[in-house]
Amino acid sequence: MPFLFNEDEIDRLGVAWRAYEMTDIPDDWTESKTGDEDQSETTIYHPIDTYWHHVFSVKTSTGSPQFVVLMKLVKCLLSLSHGNADVERGFSENRHLVSDERASLSEQSVNGLRTTSAGVEFFADGKPHQ
Fold first, then answer.
1. From which domain of life does this come (predicted)?
2. Is it the case that residue 116 has pLDDT exceeding 80?
């Protein structure tokens, strides 16, 4: 966080977080209830970005946004990858390229093979002989 916030913003972030904790959050920011009198009630949960959009639309008494510094932090946190599927896919591709007979391939060779494979996949619809 030292590269994301300066010292003043870190102090303001603590104040903003405490103000956020004390903010009354309506239930309809996180979920909706559906159903008729004859049907059972169903709860639909809203996406997290919709929730934070509501939070960041809260204004102070002067009309300015209340959670400016908190918005900066949340946007950075939401941009972080929350899965490892891309990494696992890369390991799987490498496992197919580097067999026992080709175990001594250099890093450049593996990168070249993966680039070629990606090019064939992109430009030739996955078929190398078209």
1. Eukaryota
2. yes
* Six token digits for residue 83: 């899965």
Residues in Cβ contact with 68 at an 8 Å cutoff, skipping those fewer than 6 apart: 16
Structural tokens at position 85:
């599927």
Check if the beta carbon of residue 114 is closer than 8 Å to that of residue 97.
yes
* CA dihedral for 36, 39, 41, 42, sign (positive or negative): negative
Contacts for 119 with CB less than 8 Å, ≥ 6 apart: none
pLDDT band at 130 (very low <50, low <70, confident <90, very high): low
Global pTM? Answer: 0.55
CA distance 24 to 115: 52
Domain map (residue ranges) of the chain = 7-78, 85-123
For residue 32, the cross-strand partners are 44
- Cα separation of 13 and 19, whole Å? 10
